[in-house]
Amino acid sequence: TGGRTVVVDGALLELVGGGVALDAAVLGGDVALYASARVVASGGAVLRVSGSQVYAAHGLVFDSGVGANASAVVVNDNAGVLTDGALLVLRGSASFVSGSWLSVRGNSISGRLLSLPSYPRRAELVQSTLTLHGNAGSGPVVMDGTVALGGTGRKFVVGCLMLNGQALQPMHYRSAGIIGEFRPVACGVCDADVLCFAAATRAMSGSCGCRCAEGGYGRDCLPVYLPRVDGCNRTLAMPLLSHTATLTETRSPTPTWTPTPTPSLSTPHYSSTQYSLTETPQVTGTVALPPTRTPTASVSSTPWWSDVACPTLAVTTTAAGGSLTQNDIRGGGSAVPTLLMVALPPPFRWASDPQIGTHLSFVPVSTAQPSGFGGPWGAMLRNATWVRNATNPSTVLELAVPVHRGYFIAADETIVIRCDAAAVSGGCKGVLLGFFTIRFDTLPAAASALSAITGVVAGAAAVAVVVTGGLGSVLEMQALGVFARMSCASAQERASTAALPYFLSVFAARDPLWMVVGNALLAAVFGCVHCGVTAAFRRWRGVDAASAWAAMRFPSLTYVVAHAMHLGIFFGSVLALAMPGARAQHRVIGVVGVLYGAAFPAGVCYLIARHVGASFTRYWQFSRKPLHERLLYPVGYWHPAAQQRMYGGMLTNMRGSHVYWCVFQLSALCVVCLIAAVHPPVGGCHVQYFCMAAVLLAGAGVVAFTNMMRSAFLTVMHTAGFVLLATLCLVSAAN
Predict the structure, then answer these.
(1) Are 325 and 296 in contact (CB under 8 A)?
(2) What is the pTM of this model?
(3) How far is the C-alpha of 443 from the C-alpha of 189, rounded, in Å?
């Protein structure tokens, strides 16, 4: 109970081989803990804040910095709401040396988690460990400031982080403010650097616990025994006053403790090894101060509950999967109404006002969609009635989500629940906010249509591959893989086309850099091997270069592989450049990949113009050739014989006067990839799909009207492929 501010005032707070623990407390006010004195911990000292609730504007602020030598600063398992600042703020300078440990673990905070000194200052770790693991925060970044690692044995361990309700992947850490040389550790991994104070830990147990060496205590093997305090655990009425304990320093020949309480309040008692404030959680520790200084304690009173920052509302639903979808709002076939519930964290309680629902309102985060929250359903939601939960009436309110068949959204819709402080028993400072998201999901009928069209395109492309052997048909399969990797693709589309991105690259499930580098290496390695085998064949048979190239199908087979790899390289490059929080390596490789994507078709055209020298025969003459030749060149036949074998894979699809068009389909789909890789604004996916459809329809028109293919069958197949892909885009845009 209580919303207290702890203030340490003076020049220096020195912990030598001792510890201070602030456990199971409720901290409030403008600053939860403020230390203007520089905190120095040495000789195996511990400063711990754990299991506490923080409802304040600022968290734990060390204004003059922290210095730790073979000691631990632990901020674990705290929860609450911060209206400004971070949970742990280190200003001035922060230094951790000789096996020290700064642990920020298991916290759930509405706000930033960690704020370190910014440039030119920084947090220096020399043979020490910084752990940032298992935390949940909100806002634009997880942390700010600079981490500098020095010496051997220094570690910056990061992992299992959530920001704004979304799990962060290592590739996103930099954009979330985590800058430095860190080692990622996933959730659930048993890692000593995450769980234990290394200097006092012997090993990890089979159940992922710390086995302490001599001098290590507790579950974290801290160098000081600090008992866990459960708090007052009282059921008294809410107090009217809060207490702010301030430690100041005055000079005196001898060290003494001089408490100066404010009248009408309980008198606090201090000792050199233990001090506690009545009606507060216990604070234990050993404090060493210079003998020429005397700390004094003063207790001031302020209005209690109204000075505590309002907490964040916990918003949940009874929908399947825990989150609302478009289909849930439209009815979804369920006869049981879906409930929307908002809960207060302890120790807050709802007021006894019977009209408490009038204090809650709904606000859209972005522009309300006309057929969504901005339409009739939004009015139904605003007029719905909040009632108290039967199981937890003092902390949980619930509302039956209205059903409306006309609800329709083109993108996820996030709605904020705003609640006045008057709805909370005793009030609080500010307003209470929570939010929930209604996910866009393709409606069942549209999903069936999309699946049908996708199946037709994939089937037609597969038939074209078998019947014609053309590379263009593989490109259509790759285009479907691009659609599956788009940021606008719905969950149903991703699930139904999970295998298609692998037509782009065998590394499609990894970071876009893997697609670019992996495909480029595959093409380069194959080309080098093919060239080496061709040279060996020429030396072994003693033939001229043209004959060796013709016999080994060089460079035709290399072109086939490069052609198949190209779309994955180009799409991965643009994806790497467009991804949020792209690092330097993403930008460098992305630019190189885009340049290669433009250079490859140009290089093929140059090769055709300068080195091929092929002439085509009529297509009907090819049908009279032997079966083995028709299988080898199933879509056309041209001469001389050497050239037809050397470049057959490049040009057998094209008519004699249109050989340069062999890269047309590839180039058109590269433009589609360029559009697909862009991350559109909320509600802008339909524009992206319409642009892609326009490019594809233009490509279909060019193929049909120029009649560039060697046969009418090929012209029809490739035109149909473009049209079907465009139709798929239009259906997706409409939905």
Answers:
(1) no
(2) 0.41
(3) 39
